[in-house]
Specification:
Helix content: over 70%
Number of domains: 2
Structural class: mainly alpha
Radius of gyration: 23 Å
Low-confidence stretches: none
Number of helices: 6
């Protein structure tokens, strides 16, 4: 995978993490200080150094992601066929879960946005990063296997999402039927 192949949202998240690092924030403060003192050459030089450092961070991320993808090459592993199939099955479960979580979070945000465009579910912000990483691996699965080349993938994920929503409603309904519902049972 090359840096140019990274999705913009992932690159933005990497940039956000990079910029939130205390040492990078400190360097950004120094750049601003140089600008206020009219030391534009120093400010430009330090800004270039920061961007060079960011490029190194992104390159390292891409290298790590490539290594992770290589480790998932189940077909070449020297293990029994049944174990390979079980590994592939569990791998697909992970990807399906990521897809379902992302869809659920988007649906929750859509409901909130009907009433207030500034509202969204913050609880899953950290999971969105995981989903973004998972999508990189999912892209590998899509490009290098036949699992996602037809509508079966989307249909199965949609069916599972519907089943999970139904189970959630069932839990809510049974909870309401419980005579102790709403009472402090501590």
């Amino acid at each position: 995978m090359k840096v140019s192949e990274l999705p913009n949202d992932l690159l933005s998240k990497l940039r956000e993490r990079f910029e939130s690092d205390p040492s990078v924030r400190s360097l950004r403060v120094r750049v601003e200080m140089f600008k206020r003192e009219m030391k534009f050459r120093e400010a430009l030089s330090l800004s270039r150094d920061i961007e060079s450092l960011f490029a190194q961070v992104v390159d390292e991320y891409v290298s790590n992601a490539a290594c992770e993808v290589e480790r998932v090459e189940i077909a070449t592993m020297d293990i029994p066929l049944l174990a390979k199939e079980e590994l592939m099955s569990l791998l697909l479960v992970c990807f399906m879960c990521a897809d379902i979580i992302e869809t659920s979070v988007m649906d929750m945000d859509d409901i909130l946005h009907r009433y207030d465009k500034s509202m969204y579910i913050e609880m899953f912000n950290d999971i969105r990063d995981v989903m973004s990483l998972s999508k990189d691996k999912l892209r590998y699965l899509q490009e290098n296997t036949g699992y996602m080349r037809d509508l079966v993938w989307a249909d199965k994920c949609d069916n599972m999402y519907g089943l999970m929503k139904s189970k959630a409603r069932s839990i809510m309904r049974k909870r309401k039927e419980d005579p102790n519902y709403g009472k402090n049972n501590a």
